[in-house]
Amino acid sequence: MPIYEYECSQCGVVTEAIHGMNETPTVECESCGGTKTSRIMSACSFREGVTNEFRQAHEQAKEVVRMRRDLKENYGVEKVQMANNTAGKTFRDIYSDVKSQGSGVAEAIEKTREQNKQRVREKHRDWTRKAMQRTTERGIEKRNRRLKKEQEKRAIQTPIKTK
Length: 163
Ligand SMILES: [Zn+2]
Hints:
Elements: E1 3-8, E2 14-18, E3 37-40, H1 52-75, H2 91-101, H3 104-157
Antiparallel strand pairs: 1-2, 1-3
The protein binds zinc ion.
Zinc ion (ZN) binds near residues 8, 29 and 31.
């Protein structure tokens, strides 16, 4: 069976999957659980049989899936992002935190993540506003300069009549 690599569009982690050549399964990201993964070409995507290394990776991926299900079904934790911006915690960290401290931990992490996202959004909005302001100011300056030049030109063209 061929081994394929799927890259997660959400967090960029590559998950290996083993399936038939004509199958197009939805491969869940082993890192964040996202389902928006797309197959990537790898130099050695086809191996005869399943190597121990792969079997291990496969087991690990399956374990993550089990952990996610556990969190969802037993702790009501739906959203656990495992990207690096999740308050510096890996999925495994969050999982053991939830196991020992309850679902509030995951919610707190999710909240921190949302706040970070919000902060980035605000920063970006602020930056855009400032950039627009600068552009407007520059536009007004340019216009004023042009008007002044036109005025000067007109003053030269229409000399003051003297008696
Ligand atoms: Zn992912």
